[in-house]
Amino acid sequence: MDQDSHCTAERELVEAVSRITTFSTTSPSDEEENQPKAEISCQMRKENPEKDDLRDSSSTLSPHSSMTTKELQEYWRNEKRQCRQVKLLFEIPSTRIVEHHLSKYVMYKIIILQTGSFDSNKSVIERRYSDFEKLHRNLLEEFSEEMEDVTFPKKTLTGNFTEEIINERKLAFKDYLRLLYSMKYIRRSKKFIDFLTRPELQE
Where do the record's region annotations for Disordered lie (predicted)? Predict the structure, then answer.
């Protein structure tokens, strides 16, 4: 059951990311609008898929099943297709400075690439330093042990809008997201999924 629930959590993450609205100033391309749904690996059939399929079929299908051999083959073909390995890769290619009447901040454009499906999909979101900071704080509360060695870019009193600081943070945030995603329990957590999939952040 744990493997099934983990598979479901990761599939929901990838499907949610595939539905992210593009917040960059450019409109999404036709390719992005018509992107297929991504699939996720259950990691149940990694070493020997055929043996696992046989074991799974004997445990999940009742002896009174009326499925024909052809239907069984089609069933497992669909199962394998749904459990194809998918990974998320993160890139932060650009930033923009936003100025309001009383505030000024940097928005980081994050490209989330989904690899491993038949066609690689791409989603684009924008987040600011305070969004990353809130995510880090929330994850520390829930995953103190896992986050023990995770470093977060510190705030600076001055120079936040210099090209040097912005470029440093771009690289730091990219590595930060990759590291979080590499940790199984964090990438499946609601807090991490919310950070990647919320249509907009409430301020």
Answer: 18-70
* CATH number of 112's domain: 3.30.1520.10
Alpha-carbon gap, residue 126 to 106, rounded angstroms: 10
Task: Give me the domain span that covers residue 115.
Answer: 83-196
pLDDT in tens, 77-93: 776 666 566 789 999 99
Decide: pTM greater than 0.85.
no
Distance of alpha carbon 107 from alpha carbon 30, whole angstroms: 25
pLDDT category at 58 given cuts 50, 70, 90 is very low
Residue 104 located in a structural domain: yes
C-alpha to C-alpha distances, 22 to 84, 112, 125, nearest whole angstrom: 25, 11, 6
Alpha carbon 152 to chain centroid distance? Answer: 19
